[in-house]
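User: Fold this; tokens only.

Assistant: Input:
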Amino acid sequence: MTGLVPLPLPADAAWEPVAHDKIIAGTPQTRLWVHYHDQASGLSAGEWEAGVGAWRITYTEWEYVRVISGRCVITGDDGSRFEAGPGDGFVIEPGFTGVWEVLNPMRKHWVIRE
């Protein structure tokens, strides 16, 4: 089938701790499912899940997010703040730095362009 790529249902993925040097609060863990990756275009898509906590983020890529469940707050180093929950969507642009805080365990769909 050309031009259409059905995505698999997620298999179980292992929980991984957030890097210690990035953690601001809690002991957050995440897990990741990559459903699609095209090396040539730098495009990837999948799902991500995280436990409660807060950590530093630095983006060099574009990321589109649609929250499936849970709640988070993204706070930029410039003072911007965005709270998201189920059904909310947003884009994080390259160069964004700040804090990702998970208020309630969350899951999201994501699309990244390197």
